[in-house]
Automatic annotation (TrEMBL), chains A, B:
Residues 21-62 form the Ribosomal RNA small subunit methyltransferase E PUA-like domain. It is an enzyme of class 2 (transferase). Belongs to the RNA methyltransferase RsmE family. GO terms for cellular component: cytoplasm. Its main location: cytoplasm. Its EC number is 2.1.1.193. Keywords: Cytoplasm, Methyltransferase, rRNA processing, S-adenosyl-L-methionine, Transferase. This is Ribosomal RNA small subunit methyltransferase E. NCBIfam families: PRK11713.3-5 (NF008696), RsmE family RNA methyltransferase (TIGR00046). It comes from Ruegeria meonggei.
Length: 241, 241
């Protein structure tokens, strides 16, 4: 028995556990996906792995599912933070989606000197991360943090966490990531579309835990750079085989 | 003297060369970007590198630029074809944009057994490739081919061209691309959202020039897979340092 529909729920999951659906979830499962009583869904909550659940009650405003068996154990991503400077709305949504799909553990929008946006909709971005996890078969949902100023984030930086810092002004200095030790806490920082300011670049370059990496000879849009940087890191130090 | 605005033109470029603008180009430069006579633009045509040009005449329906000096030589991408199965419109546009940004030399939409779309707007996709080249500072524009059936493309496949074939069903068989010889003609093939059919997978796996590559433990959307695959290839065999 397997389920095609995957749903994130904010609820404990375990054998026989009953899961109440919200109005939106009921609308999605019964209205959009045409599921009925007796149908199956795969549930995950970011903590207990993936569970096969059966529809026990289906209504317009709600419903109830019963957990049956665990279909996947929890697969935690590596301890990787993903920091980026928000850009235009659609591209920001894409960046969050990509970071979740590519296995970032925590997504942190940061405000740089050249960042266009003053604020973000954290709840909206979190919803994109949930949707990405539903789509990509993940059992973990990265937390999307609120927008913080990059300089403040650096002030409080945990010294044991390495940082891969992608700077379009740096060409040819590709880090041999493969030479680094695996299993360490890391972060990836992607600059804004206008690049980092000279002051930011100077500060970042001087940090003992920062490693500048080049993303090739072409200038990449921020959302492309996000996937490229995550690919490089996951291949060298993450959970890609 | 440098120009912030980059424009692709279908015109010869060289010292003193005069370039007539189309109505759309004139609207963009003079209406949207507020450029005036004496202003500068960077031009490229995919063949002659990038040229600094000066606005000689500016009108609502057209205009004229005069080429001055070459600001960048032609940078050809590696001999890499990028094959993908078109999906929903917006994602297809993104895939073409990403492939152009990431340095594919030729973009080939292919129809697989599980491809949703029966046809594409080739002119529209080509325009996206041009725009991506304008944005990413490239001097080359990949050609977007018309939609072809995958089995026909394989029937006519040049035997000397290697193929990196990304299959979500294959986990853990990451090819050591780095062990391959550099400077060879290659192609990347990304499957449709629904994956390849069993028949397609069997045929692809049996091809002597096909190399199956895994894109990690999570299922990636097609546009994410495109960037991830291009990153892997460019790092191992392409023009990334």
């Amino acid at each position: 028995m397997s389920a095609k529909i995957r749903l994130y729920v904010d609820h404990l999951l375990g054998p026989g556990q009953s899961v109440e659906l919200t109005r939106e979830q009921a609308h999605y499962l019964f209205g959009v996906m045409r599921l009925a009583v007796g149908g199956h869904v795969a549930l995950f909550n970011g903590k207990d792995g993936e569970w096969l659940a059966k529809v026990a009650e289906a209504g317009k405003k709600g419903g109830k599912l019963t957990c049956q068996t665990q279909s996947k154990p929890l697969h935690m991503p590596p301890d990787l933070w993903f920091l980026f400077a928000p850009i235009k709305k659609t591209r920001t949504d894409f960046i969050v989606e990509k970071a979740a799909e590519m296995g970032a553990a925590r997504i942190m929008p940061v405000q740089t000197q050249f960042t266009n946006s003053e604020r973000i909709r954290q709840d909206r971005l979190q919803a994109h991360a949930v949707e990405a996890a539903e789509q990509c078969g993940g059992t973990f949902v990265p937390e999307v943090a609120d927008l913080q100023r990059l300089d403040r984030v650096l002030d409080d930086w945990p010294e044991t966490r390495q940082m891969m810092f992608c700077d379009e002004a740096e060409v040819g200095s590709a880090l041999r990531l493969a030479a680094q030790e695996k299993g360490q806490p890391w972060a990836i920082l992607i600059g804004p579309e206008g690049g980092f300011s000279d002051r930011e670049r100077a500060r970042l370059s001087g940090l003992p835990y920062a490693h500048v990496v080049s993303l090739g000879p072409r200038i990449l849009r921020a959302d492309t750079a996000a996937v490229a940087a995550l690919t490089m890191w996951q291949q060298a130090l993450g959970d890609w085989l």
